[in-house]
Structures are given as C-alpha cells and as structure tokens.
C-alpha cells in the first residue's frame, strides 16, 4: 500500500489535503525515486553502511524535511514505524521484500552519524548537519 497512491482513499485524503495535484505528484515521484534506489542497492548486496545506501538515506532525510525537520530521536522513531505500522511496511515491502527493515536500520545508522538529539532550528541547519 503506497500512502501516496490515489487508490488508497483513506490515506489519500489526509495526505492530499491542502496540496495541489502537481505538488502531490511531485512528492509521490520523489519518494518513489528514493525507495527504488535504496531497494536496488539492497538487492545488489550493499549493506546499510555502504556509502551509496547512506547517500540515499540522506536524500530520504531531505525528502522528510519538506514536511517536518526531525532530530535524531524523531527520525529514528519515524524509521521504526516503517517496520511496525502495517501501511508503512507494506509501502516499502512493495518495492522489495525486506526493504522496510533495511531502511529502518540504515536510517538508524545515518541518524547516529548526522543528527543530534536537540531541536533543529530550521531546514538549513538540518541539511548542514549531514
């Protein structure tokens, strides 16, 4: 289940509220691009600590920062929902079996190396922390 899919009516309504169709499609395409790249790296045998995977987790963090700028604890908590929440898990598992856990672990590593537990002042501060 892709939370950005227009066929997922219950999630679609809340995610799409107040967002133009063009912007919504941009968000959806951005998420898809990131997830496909991470899935490809995972299936090619890259570990969560590979430079390539960590690069794409950085891209994932930038994507998240369009909506909310999490600190280390919050970003790792979001990653945990990817394995615990059935809708999030299904979204990532649709790309590749095992991707939800792979991304969660990769985010944990990235967050430990790039974020602090303090509040982030703004998006520029968050991006410069990487």
TrEMBL record:
One Pfam family from the record: TipAS
Residues annotated as domain TipAS antibiotic-recognition: 11-109
Protein name: Unannotated protein
Organism: freshwater metagenome
């Amino acid at each position: 289940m892709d939370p950005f899919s227009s066929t997922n009516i219950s999630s679609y309504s809340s995610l799409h509220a107040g967002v133009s169709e063009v912007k919504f499609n941009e968000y959806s395409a951005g998420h898809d691009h990131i997830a496909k790249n991470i899935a490809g790296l995972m299936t090619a045998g890259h570990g969560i600590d590979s430079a390539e995977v960590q690069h794409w987790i950085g891209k994932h963090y930038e994507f998240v920062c369009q909506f909310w700028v999490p600190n280390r604890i919050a970003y790792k908590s979001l990653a945990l929902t990817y394995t615990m929440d059935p809708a999030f898990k299904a979204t990532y598992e649709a790309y590749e079996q095992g991707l939800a856990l792979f991304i969660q672990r990769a985010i944990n590593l990235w967050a430990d190396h790039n974020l602090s537990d303090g509040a982030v002042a703004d998006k520029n501060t968050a991006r410069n922390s990487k």
